[in-house]
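User: I'm putting together a teaching handout on how sequence relates to shape, and I'd like one worked example. Could you take Putative restriction endonuclease domain-containing protein from Tieghemostelium lacteum, show the sequence you're using, and then write out its predicted structure as C-alpha cells right after it?

Assistant: Happy to. First the sequence, then the C-alpha cells directly below it.
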Amino acid sequence: MDTNNNINNDNHLENPDYISIVLPWDISIDQYNKFVDINQLPAHKYQQNTVAIPNSTKIDFSPLFQKKCFSFNRLHNNPLHKIEKLNRDTHLIETKGTDFLWVKDFASLPGSQTGDFLRQVGQWNIKNKLGIVFSQKSKYRLFPNINNLVYSPDVSFKTHAIYNLDKLRVKKNNITVHPPQYVLEVASYSQKNKLDIKQEKMVDWITAGVESGILYDGCGGKVYLYCRSNMLINQQHPNVQGQLNGINNEIVQLQQRIFNRQQRLLNTIGLLPDDILDLQTQLNQDQQELVPLQWPQFYYQNMNPVPGHPGVSFRTIPLWLNQNPQYHGPNMIIHCIGVTNGLKLNLSTIPMD
C-alpha cells in the first residue's frame, strides 16, 4: 500500500491549521513537553488544560493522561472519549484505541470534494432507494470490545436492513456499532497529512465488515479502491464483468439511436417544426450521455492484498490531473461494487481548486 503521499501539486499544499483541544483535567509542564516531543509538534505556549494540534494528524495523547485513566478495563473508561465529549461542539474528533485521536479537516477544498461525492451517492440512492446515505457527522464504533475505534467517514452508505438493526435511540444519537457497507474518505491537503491515517482507516473499515470503499487523494493525485479479499475471484470482483458488458451495451445502443436520429434529421419531410426541435433535443441528450461512457472506466479488478492485511485488497489509480487541472477532476468514472453495484462516480465534477 502506498503509505507516502507523493505530492505532485505543491501549490495546493496547505500549512496545517493548529487547533486548540480542551482537556478535562490539568496537565503539568513535564507532561506537555513529553506530548510535544513524542508527536514531533512545535512547542506552543504551555497551558494547564489546553493543547494545540494540527488538523488531520494522528496524535498520541497518552503523555497527558492522569494515572487514574489507566485503571482496569480502560476500554470502558477511555480518556479519549472524555476529550471528544468536551470538544464535540467545536471539532469532529475520531479516536483509535485509548491513545490516539485526530481532528477531521473542514478546509474548503476537501469539504467541497466531500460534498460532491455525497451528492453523487445521494442521487444514486434516490433513484434506487436501497438504503441510507450518511454524511461525516455520522459516527461508527468499530471493534467495541477490542480496539474501540470511533470513526466518522466522509460519506457512508448502508442498506435499510443494516440501518434498522439500530434502535431509534441509537439512530438519534448518530453513533452505532453496525458498520456501513460502503465508505468514502477524502484526504486532507495539509502538509502534515502523509495519507497514513486515511489508509489505516480504510483497512480498519474493511476489517470491521465494510464491503468496499474509496479513498480520494486529490492532493497526491491518486484514488484508492478497497474491498474484502474474500469478495474477489482472481483479483476481480464478480460484478465487474456485468459492468463491462453493461457499458458496452449502452454505448452500442446510444450510438445506434444517435445514428437513427441523425438520419431522420437529414430528411425532415413530413415533420412539423416542433417535431424537428424535439428530435434535435433528443439527439443532443444522447450525444451528451455518450460522452462519459467513452471516458476511461475503472473497476474493482487487478486488486492486491494490503501488505500485512491479507483480508483487505486494494488498487491504486493515478488521477489524470492534466485534464481540467484548474477547476475539476479528470474525465474518469469509477464503478462501485456489492450493495453499491451500479453507482458510478464521475471524477470530472470533483472540485480541484
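A couple of points you could highlight for students: The helical segments are 29-38, 79-87, 108-128, 160-163, 168-173, 196-207, 239-266, 273-293. Residues 2-14 have pLDDT under 50 and may be disordered.
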